[in-house]
Specification:
Strand order of the largest sheet of chain A: 1-4
Oligomer: heterodimer
Mean pLDDT of chain A: 94
Largest interface: A-B, 75 and 87 residues
Helix content of chain B: 25-40%
Distance between the termini of chain A: 57 Å
Shape of chain B: globular
Structural class of chain A: mainly alpha
CATH topology of the largest domain in chain B: Cyclin A, domain 1
Strand order of the largest sheet of chain B: 4-3-2-1-5
Low-confidence stretches of chain B: none
Number of helices of chain B: 7
CATH class of the largest domain in chain B: Mainly Alpha
Order of helices and strands of chain A: HHHHHHEEHHHHEEHH
Number of helices of chain A: 12
Number of domains of chain B: 2
Mean pLDDT of chain B: 96
CATH class of the largest domain in chain A: Alpha Beta
CATH topology of the largest domain in chain A: Nitrile Hydratase, Chain A
Radius of gyration of chain B: 19 Å
Number of strands of chain A: 4
Strand content of chain B: 15-25%
CATH architecture of the largest domain in chain B: Orthogonal Bundle
Low-confidence stretches of chain A: none
Chain lengths: 198, 209
């Protein structure tokens, strides 16, 4: 097709474009269906925020584990049997304190430690969050429902390389002494991204 | 490249459309495309840097109007066409309409020979480099001063890896910048960190080294 002809032809709807590439790859002998089934299973059953929640709850209950988690997040996550894609060689765990609040983003694309905190939510990938959170973090957090006291230092972490970050939220005072499993139940994806406190 | 994808610090955007239980996917085709691009990476058709760069090469108006997974779809299709796995004609015949792809890549580059070997605590300045191909240095840190607070294992150098150029793996530094250094008198106070390859950095001369 010439460029002129292409210019006048209407763009196919995105669903048809998606079906077209899938069918074309299938025709090349790719086992697309199997790949899709396997990835869907991982997304729905394995790469869940519950993984990160277990890390957080264990860190709250076990000071030695917390030390290891802060020193080498990847090694600590592997202890619990979690996996990482090949290009995630490093996981940095960012500890929130009464004086410091951490929040993660990816201004260039949408990188996250998805095997630990789940695939990123839609708003994390939207232009608004990517553009604004590095420059007006306090306002963005407030708009998202987290109003931090003015004396709290905000640390924004832009995932511009292959290092992955996860926030270790503060344990709510009313939950001291809870069993680990119950604690894991209160840790949200948003709190590990850093747009919420617990 | 100074592309439209490089959004950090851009002004004029409205509120984040946030919901506590926001989904990652909105349609079944999005899950399928996300899986297919992962399959393509595992099959060695392209690597993650080529994948990211093909998204960055999307025509700017297309990039801004496309959903996240439409960008994934466009990158996957572009690279499959560029690598000779499928033809654009086949895709358009099957889609029964035009199938916009990303625009061609500029040349890549290899590591900076004089790059410093850095450690936590080192004061650095981001080089004032303008790279036409893939680069993982957001424009908002270009030329800015900060402090190294972390160092990663070595990774493929994206400026080369996205273009099939030979290069040594490089470490990245987590560099801490003050938002006031990044946008003088035009940002809310915060510490902003980026993961920065050593080729993008030089020592900040003011510390005497």
């Amino acid at each position: 097709m010439s460029e002129t002809a292409r210019a006048v032809q209407a763009t196919a709807p995105v669903e048809r474009r998606a079906a077209a590439i899938e069918a074309a790859l299938e025709a090349q002998g790719w086992k697309a269906g199997e790949g899709i089934a396997e990835a869907t299973r991982k997304v729905e059953e394995e790469w869940l925020p519950a993984n990160g929640a277990r890390l957080v709850a264990k860190a709250w209950c076990d000071p030695d584990f917390k030390r290891r988690l802060l020193a080498d997040g990847r090694a600590a996550a592997l202890e619990l049997g979690f996996e990482f894609p090949r290009h995630h060689r490093h996981l940095v765990v960012l500890e929130n304190t009464p004086a410091v609040h951490n929040v993660i983003c990816c201004t260039l694309c949408s990188c996250t430690a998805f095997t630990i905190i789940g695939l990123p939510p839609d708003w994390y990938k939207d232009l608004e969050y990517r553009a604004r959170v590095v420059r007006e973090s306090r306002t963005v957090l407030k708009e998202m429902g987290l109003e931090l006291p003015p004396e709290v230092e905000i640390r924004v972490w832009d995932t511009t390389a292959d290092t992955r970050y996860v926030v270790l939220p503060m344990q709510p005072p009313g939950t001291i002494g809870w069993p680990e499993e119950r604690l894991a139940g209160i840790v949200t994806r948003d709190s590990m991204i850093g747009v919420a406190r617990l | 490249m100074d592309g439209i994808h490089d959004l950090g610090g851009r002004q004029g955007f409205g509120p984040v459309r946030h919901a506590p239980d926001a989904p990652a996917f909105h349609a079944a085709w999005e899950k399928r495309i996300n899986a297919l691009y992962g399959l393509a990476v595992r099959r060695g058709v392209f690597n993650m840097d080529e994948y990211r760069h093909a998204i960055e090469r999307m025509e700017p108006r297309h990039y801004l109007s496309a959903s996240y997974y439409e960008r994934t779809l466009t990158s996957l299709a572009t690279l499959c066409v560029e690598k000779g796995v499928v033809t654009r004609e086949e895709l358009e015949r099957r889609a029964e309409g035009a199938f916009p792809l990303a625009l061609p890549a500029a040349a890549g580059r290899t590591n900076v020979v004089t790059r410093p070997r850095l450690a936590v605590g080192d004061r650095v300045r981001v080089r004032d480099d303008h790279v036409p191909g893939h680069v993982r240095m957001p424009a908002y840190i270009r030329g800015k001063r900060g402090v190294v607070v972390g160092v990663s294992p070595a990774y493929p150098f994206p400026d080369a890896h996205a273009h099939g150029v030979a290069a040594e793996d490089e470490r990245t530094c987590d560099v801490r910048f003050s938002s006031i250094e990044l946008w003088p008198d035009a940002a809310e106070p915060a510490m902003v960190h980026a993961g920065v390859f050593e080729s993008y950095l030089e020592r900040d001369g003011s510390d005497g080294r």
